[in-house]
Amino acid sequence: MTETIAEKIKQPLNSANSFIVCGLGSLGQSCIVAIDEFGGNVSGVEQNVTSSWEIPEIPELLENLVIGDCRQANILVNAGIHNCRAILLVTSNERVNLETAFAARSLNPKIRLIVRSSKQNLNDLLAKELGNFIAFEPTQLPATAFALAALSDEIMGFFTLDGQLMRVVQQEIDRTHRWCEVRMIYELNTRNRRILDHRSQNQERDSPLFNQLEPDVRLKPHDLLTYIELADTEISNRSTPTKTQSQDWTQGIGKLTSQMVWANLQKNMIDYRNWLLESRTRLAANVCGIVVIGLIAVGTLLFRLNYPGIGFVDSIYTTIALLLSGYGDLFGEIINTSPAPTWLRFFGLMLTISGTALVGLLYGLLTESLLSARFQFLSRRPPVPEQDYVILVGLGRVGQRVAKLLQEFKQPLVAIASSEVDPTLLPEIPLISGNINSALEKISLGKAKGLIAVTDDEMLNLELAMMTHAANPQSRLVIRTFEQSLTNNLAQLLPYADVLCANSISAEAFAAAAYGENVISLFRLNNQTVLVTEYFVETGDTLEGLILAEVSYGYGVVPILYQEPHGKAKLMPIDDIRLGNGDRLVVLATIKSLKAIEVRALLEPSWYVYIEQPLNKEAIFEGANVIVRVCNCPMLTARLMMENLPCRLDIPLYKLQAQRLVRELIKAQVSGYIIQT
What we know:
This protein is 44% helix and 21% strand. By secondary structure, the protein is an alpha/beta fold.
């Protein structure tokens, strides 16, 4: 009997399917659940014995539980470090995580290291030194989900891919929309846009998340359309200026110097330019310095040519003396011994005047800088916006990241913190410090667009959300939680709020990384976590030799970028591309889809195309080419099929693939329709 996809996914992997999780707090337990969904075997390491678990099923999910310090070699050996595929170091102490990473690498040079760490620079260095190393900051990963949940009903997610800002939009189509009753679903797919999901009014759909479209349906009022597109916004322009300028610079000067030297020079020049542009004072001082150097060079040359006897060094000192108001002393002495030409004396006078002006300017800039620094400590934050603002409660690392994201979208914002905050932290945001409940009384909740409660106290987050809902039932509410059981209960009791479990969202990225996937970003869509995952196809893996249609519909993912080795990246690639060794592929996928790719659990195609008579002889030739391209079949098979029409094409296809084949055949003047067996 043929195995179902669910049965294949539940099967353990054939090799290297053991993992170790060090640190069994909230995040560690969520990682165990996520790895179990992949079908992996997990051993846990915890410092102290615990009698209660936030997730009650943890003891049943663990193959082995080792109590002790994970930095010790014998503890890691007892946990199975030598026969383990990856180790997840997710304790709350970053130093312990990094020390354990060194110990694990010395015991098993091939093990994959997944580390919880916020030290970005150190993480980059360790990735180069240790290899097979990836670090995440779990408090940062779900920040985008928190921001977008309060920001808009339409924007579901956004991330940067090769310097391009991509956004995921969910939009309800109204009667005035330019696509309404005009465009079909498949017509909306372009080089910069890909339709992810379409639902008619009152239609609900369970998993799988992607590839459940009816592409030949025309959009109607109140349809819900979800798509990913290239966002041409100011955010995109601000996120990549350095890269674009460096590419242009490298093309012009790359032939004159080595790659390494140019890379260092390039970085230093860009850093220096950015440093100058941060302050008008710095820029003015830099210009003054250039002018002074130029005047010294010209003056030195002129004095050296007219007075060879005073020497080169004396020429420099003479010019500097003139710049420092020494005109009378110098030219008075020179006149007594050797009269100077009139034009040179006039030039000396100009040097003195210029030097006086430049010195005065520099003193003024210095005074301005000192006064600005003093006033900066006394400056006040902007007032609370009048309406349509988002209230952000909690300015920890998650809150700061959420605030910056909302600023990128130019969303009016007011922050509330329980204690005094550094004046230099987010100075452009209105801030109220002190007792949080008292702070809320200073804000008009009725005029607020929404509230994001991301403090470390789950009950406080819940209380604030309920207070806001009581005052303004129309406001959007986002509640940060840490336990999945509480998240599930609150989501049922508070349907008007977005309850997001930070650890659960982050854990799926950790689990995917443990299997060797490069998780670029993640976002929430239809109550599921979508991982933006990057693959590099290798010989013999589960993607090699497949066309993108088979990858997309067979595994339930959405390819959004394809790149050949040393080739140019293509956004929203067509379904006909065949994957080969070294190709790069970026997809949108759920954790179940990633597991399906891991075990090659391809969904079996069950649709066929019945091809009718072509309109002319040329259509036979073109139709065969279409079949080869869309169906990934040999040319001989396609030719024989086209010579014996009408008939059923004996190549099983996925539904969306079959529908596309029919559309392409019609363009080639060959009619057909799809059937299911």
